[in-house]
Specification:
Blueprint lengths: L1 E5 L4 H12 L3 E6 L18 E5 L14 E4 L6 H4 L3 H22 L2 E7 L26 H21 L3 E6 L2 E2 L10 H10 L4 E4 L5 E3 L1 E2 H13 L8 E3 L4 E3 H11 L6 E4 L19 H7 L7 H15 L5 E5 L9 H12 L4 E7 L7 E4 L2 E6 L6 H20 L4 E4 L3 H12 L5 E9 L2 H8 L3 H9 L2 E7 L2 H8 L4 E5 L4 H19 L3
Parallel strand pairs: 1-2, 1-4, 2-3, 4-5, 5-6, 6-11, 7-10, 8-13, 14-15, 14-18, 15-17, 18-19, 19-20, 20-21
Antiparallel strand pairs: 9-12, 16-17
Helix pairs in contact: 1-6, 3-4, 5-7, 10-16, 11-12
Amino acid sequence: MRILVTGGAGFVGSHLVDALLLEGHEVICVDSFFSGKPDNVAHHKDNAKFRLIKHDVREPLKGIDSLDRIYHLACPASPTQYQFDPVLTLETSVIGTQNMLKLARRTGARMLYTSTSEAYGDPLEHPQKETYWGNVDTLGKRACYDEGKRAAETLCKDYHEQYGVDVRLVRIFNTYGPRMMFNDGRVLSNFMLQALLGQDITVHGDGKQTRSFMYVSDLVAGLMKRMEVQSDDWKPVNLGNPDERTIKNAAQMVKKMTDSKSTVAHIPMSQVPEREGDPKQRCADISRAKSLLGWEPTVTFEVGLQSSIDDFKERLKNKPRMLVFTPAYLPEKGPAEKKAQQVMRQLSGYEFDVITTKIGSTKADEDDGTIHIHRIGKGNRFDKVFYPIRAALLARKLHKMHGHRVAWAIMASHGALAAIIFSWMKRHMPVVLSVYEGKISEDKLKRGKLLSPLYKLIFRRSHRWQVIGNMSQQQQAWLEEERHVQVVQDDADLAMLTKRTRELFQEAEILSSRM
């Protein structure tokens, strides 16, 4: 058959593409790379039956007139991704689904739409059956995803009833496995990464929240069965694993199976406002999947978790690298460089290429664990003057070797100019700017409103920026009016500063896939 898979370069989509090609089908993979990665399907590039198209499903897909099946998976699926651009998330679910339904109608293809267990919201029924209407906050932080999926289900129903489109619906519960993104905000990927890097395994709240985790191969088998079952029954089917466990238990299992020295640390929910609206319980009732599809999961949590840990271990051998621009660094450094170094040492899931100036008799290149220091200049007072151009040129050379996705500038000065020049060279690579201000006085804020043209350029060209300072709530509110600014109080502990900085990097990594 000729099969279209939207979101085919994502975590789940790429495993589905593997399975369909293994069965001998012709597969057209469509992905915008907002959350998917070309690397996930790169092993099929020489397969004559595989075609990869970069396309945003919010726009009609033209030039394809013959299809047998459409698996519509396209949509950011983790909180980090879908809350990053909530309008895009909602439009992908609604407009993107309508475009695929129109394509299915035009080609006569059968279409399977992947909805979500989030359609049930924070459920008042447990476990959740397909007949449950849900308990969803239409104005909550997760609404762009939850309500988008619910609206898309309605569209599928209406296209089936009004136009006769052969459509099927599945609601997917928590899924895990190889190719999960390191920094996607999903609970198991967070736990595995933290455990393997020796960091605290952070559990939000008391950890008594429950989830039921399904291994990705079980999900793919369920999707294919749902697509091919010969039935006029188009209504939703839950695909999940009813093996319900607490988040705290999952954290302890990850710690044990990675043989990690990490500590399971609890963070009050008040400190993680982005998790507002997380359901307290989640467990699939799969009675319908058993009777209609003859399907149920077969991979135990222990087996699936070990496979996922092995995948993370292998990929951590080549950690993502980040360019850091700072004219001053060890052995001489001020408060900003000192804090930046502390954060880099905590973010052991990355490697950093720090481009700085030469000082005295220091070596040109040094390694400090995951921090690689590259020095330019001759060690005199003119080094900072020529730093922006020299640093940008060295960054271009390093980028060819390591494929950086994000540039990080420490302070709005020569380093920020270098990052902006390099970003321009590389077609607008995302730039994160960190400004360490200490005590922010009223005079500083007044000067900030009258920035020189140079500083205006730096702040305007930085894709995300962070202000670390000692400020009043009024001052903080003034800064946070700008959506791209993250404000961190100067007295925040290192763990909190590291967490907030990681969030900025995650947003920048998402941005990099859109440029």
